[in-house]
Amino acid sequence: MESVPPTLSPSRTTCGSLLRELQIIWDEIGECDSERDKMLLQLEQECLDIYRRKVEKTRKYKADLHQQLAEAEAEIAGIASALGEGFSSFSRGRGTLKEQVVAIKLILEELRSKKREKLKEFSEVQLQIVSICSEIAGSGQSKSYVDPQIHEHNLTAKKLGELKLHLQELQNEKHLRLQKVNTNISLIHELSVVMSMDFLKTVNEVHPSLGDPKSGPSRSISNDTLARLNGVINSLKQEKQERFQKLQDLGKRLTGLWNLMDSPADERKRFDHVTCLMSSSVEEVSGKGCLALDIIEQVEFEVERLNVLKTSKMKELIFKRQTELEEIYRGVHIDIDGDAARKTLTSLIDSRNVDLSDLLSSMDDQVAEAKEQALSRKDILDKVEKWQFALQEEKWLEDYERDDNRYSAGRGAHKNLKRAEKARLLVTKLHSMVENLAAKVKAWESEKGITFSYEKVPLLRTLEEDAKLRQEREEGKRKSREQKRLQEQLASEQEALYGSKPIPKKPLGQSNTMLGTPGRRIGTPGRYGFSGSKDRRESGRVPNIIPVNYVALPKDDSASKGA
User: Fold this and answer.
1) Interatomic CA distance for residues 491 and 144, integer angstroms
2) How far is Cα 442 from Cα 233, in angstroms, rounded to an integer?
3) What are the C-alpha distances in Å from 471 to residues 327, 405, 429, 477, 526?
4) Residue 530: which H helix or E strand, with range?
């Protein structure tokens, strides 16, 4: 029976024991020494190869450790440079390579954590920058700002500060743009309210975010939005200007038609909101709906309605102006042939060859000219009225002084006495009054280049004729006084020759004037001098005592002086 070599447990197996076991097996096999040496040599070579591979593997592991250390050092240097932190004094320290690797990994992990925090901070700032840039650029250009590029090799505090400063500038610009957008929206709202336009529809056409009051900071602030808002505002302002101008023109036409047709105040009051625009500027118009299209349509309808009525009422207004013209001329004593003028107007209207508006405008011009002429005549007419009043008082005074009972204690006698005193004072001013009036009339005629007529007669001619008549009356009075003087002289001479005659006593209450003797008053002031009315009465009592052509014989000087 073949003997079996003892087996060794793996935990106690060594090269020597295996070699001894191999020797036993060779002995049992009967292997020759050459084979044994060859196999031993082969085993030795295989062992060397195993050791060599193991050494090479260990050497490579060592190199890997050195590589890890070098890479870690390079990464630490890169992160430190990117973070702006100095690690110039960094060293691996003492100890084995594994210990050094463990130590440097701790430092590297700490730096990596700092880098991640920095990257996160940079990313947040950059995202805000990209978001604001996207809002400013608008939806059409936002794609270029979707993926922010962060340079990991420059994560220093200086770079972060520059980014934050840029972010602050963009935030300020966003705030300004948002203010501008809100201001433009408010202006659009004001214009829309004035013109009764759909505000939400208008701003939503610019950008949907503008019509939502809850959108707030999320409203579009892009260049395109601002440009379109400015365009809408300019368009609305132009529309407002056109509507305002149109309403102003309609208001003027409406006012002209009202004045033309003498429309009542109640009818005009309905369009006060339109006529008030005539004295306003377009910037002052801010009332709700005051420039709405329905307002313009209402005014246009009213203007058309009045235009229809204007033609039917125009003839009435023209003749009303003619009546007004005649009243003005009549009030200032200017002669005008009203019947002929009315016939002419009727012929013009019936011929339909003249525009009634132009004809009415011509009548208005004539009325204005008549009022101006009446105003220019007012001063002279006032003086004419005073002159005529003075003439009336003069005539009354003459009648009053012819009354022999004017001094009787009758009813109202004291009033007549006061009036007579005032009349005498007024009559004394007649001469200067006429001279001033004539001077005024001549100056007026020189300025206007026309004759000043009063009751169809030139006033200067009237004054001249009155002066001539007054002169003739004064001459008659002078002759009457002269004749009376001669009569008195003759009576005195007769008394001297024949003696005085006894004067019979008059009953109480009779006049104290006697035939052939002067009365209490010799004369009364007339228009230019003294009135000879009483002289004429006394001279009339003795018409046959002496002829009118009697001439007294001259007396001696002493007698004449005594006379």
Assistant:
1) 144
2) 67
3) 37, 30, 16, 10, 11
4) strand 530-531
**Could you tell me which of 356, 254, 252, 269 has the C-alpha nearest to residue 313?**
356
Q: Which pLDDT tens digit goes with each residue over 271-291? A: 888 888 877 788 878 788 888
Angle between helices 533-541 and 356-402 (to 10 degrees): 50
Q: What is the pLDDT along the chain (563 residues), one digit of tens a residue?
A: 344 444 444 556 788 888 888 889 988 888 888 888 898 899 889 989 999 999 999 999 989 988 888 888 888 888 887 787 665 445 666 778 888 888 888 888 888 888 888 888 888 998 988 888 888 887 645 444 445 566 677 778 888 888 889 999 998 998 998 888 888 888 988 888 888 888 888 888 888 878 776 666 677 888 888 888 899 999 988 988 998 898 889 888 888 888 877 788 888 888 888 888 877 788 878 788 888 898 889 889 988 888 878 777 778 878 888 888 888 877 777 777 778 888 888 888 777 777 777 887 888 888 888 888 778 777 778 878 888 888 888 888 777 877 766 666 666 677 878 888 888 888 777 777 888 888 888 888 888 888 787 877 787 888 888 878 878 877 887 888 888 888 888 888 888 877 655 555 444 444 333 333 333 332 333 333 333 333 433 333 333 333 333 333 333 333 333 33
- Following DSSP, what letter does each residue of 489-529 receive, concatenated? HHHHHHHHHH-PPPPPPPPTTS-S--TTS--S-S-EE-SSS
Q: In this structure, which amino acid lies at residue 379?
A: D
In three-state secondary structure terms, 458 is strand
Nearest to 275 by CA among 313, 249, 242: 249
For residue 488, the SS3 value is helix
- Reading the block at residue 298, the tokens are 């209402």
Helix (H, G, I), strand (E, B) or coil at 334: coil
Which residues are bridge partners to 264 per DSSP?
none
Q: Report the residue count for the chain.
A: 563
Query: What is the three-class DSSP state of 96?
Result: coil
CA 106, 109, 113, 115 torsion: positive or negative?
positive
CB 293, CB 276: distance < 8 Å: no
Query: CA 300, 306, 311: angle at the middle one, nearest 5?
Result: 135
Check the CA dihedral 428-430-436-438 and report its sign. negative
Rounded Cα–Cα distance for residues 21 and 33 (Å): 16
Residue 244 token pair: 């305002």
| In the chain, domain spans | 14-116, 312-402+413-493
Instruction: Judge whether 45 and 61 are in contact, CB under 8 Å.
Output: no
77/91 Cα distance (integer angstroms): 12
Q: Which class for 491: exposed (0-12), middle (13-18), buried (19 or more C-beta within 10 A)?
A: middle
Phi-psi domain of 296 (left: phi exceeds 0; alpha: psi -120 through 50; beta: other): alpha
How many CA atoms lie less than 13 Å away from 520 in the CB half-sphere?
A: 7
